[in-house]
Amino acid sequence: MSARPRTSIVIPTYNHAALLPTAVESALAQTAPVEVVVVDDGSTDDTGALVRARWGERVRYVRQPNAGLGAARNTGIAHATADTLTFLDADDALVPESVARRLAVLDARPDVGWVYSDVFVMDAGGTVTGRCSEEYGYAARRRDGRLFEELLRGNFIPVHAVLVRRACLDAVGTFDAGARAKEDWDLWVRVAHEYPAAYVPEALAYVRRTAGSMMTDRTVMAEATLRAMARIEARYPAEVAGAAADWRRMRAQQYLEIAVSGARSRSRGARLHAVLRAIAVRPVQGAAYRTLARLVAGR
User: Fold this and answer.
1) Of 2, 187, 229, 287, which residue is the least packed, with the fewest Cβ within 10 Å?
2) Can you give the residue range of the structural domain that contains 98?
3) C-beta of residue 189 within 8 angstroms of C-beta of residue 77
4) Long-range CB contacts for residues 262-266, cutoff 8 Å, separation at least 24
5) Is 201 in the same domain as 237?
6) pTM
């Protein structure tokens, strides 16, 4: 009889049959006992046939109508049976010791609710190009303990860097099912408000950055950030008020991003509205006025 899984690895996927094997095989190769839950978010490719034929009962396969990444992860959480969870996107991967290294930290530190690691960044071909610790400037950040105030400044923890106790999610809730992106930031803020974290400086996962992905759509990411900010502010108004300057700067940056990057997807009127919102939030910012001048001139 196989060992009871210590961790459930939730893998949401949508039309990623070509890349999914890398993610699933990396999950099944873990040195700790794991359960792999693949949530097919309404794929129209051969994802279902692939999972059944290649892995059979080694993978728990759940299919749902297309509902988005946050909803798919929540479905995976609902079907998972282990006491800890980690999340892996279908185009990414884990190193074999990823779960074991993070579990060891949770086992040694019962006061900690969640643990996260560094992550390798790779290009579309799988070549490692850097680390998230470099991208997000970990050297200048608080990385261990109470991370709530640090996370109010923005997210710096990739979703599959985290291994979290199920009890924490039972207490604070799961992902924002209606978000197109940044649903992980909203959740990490809630977890960090209640539970200290531990950081493992090793890179224990791989995140793939590809042209045309949602992560590279700056307008979508800015709008998702604003939605997450609204949810966080509604939940923690006093704490956000205490970080008012950082919050204004971050909100203004998102509106300005929409004005600058939305040329193909947003009307000129919508972009004008966005830059005016940026100026209203934070009046002293030269870039916003230069952008306003270009839009007024029709450029």
Assistant:
1) 2
2) 7-210
3) no
4) 262/219, 265/219, 266/219
5) no
6) 0.92
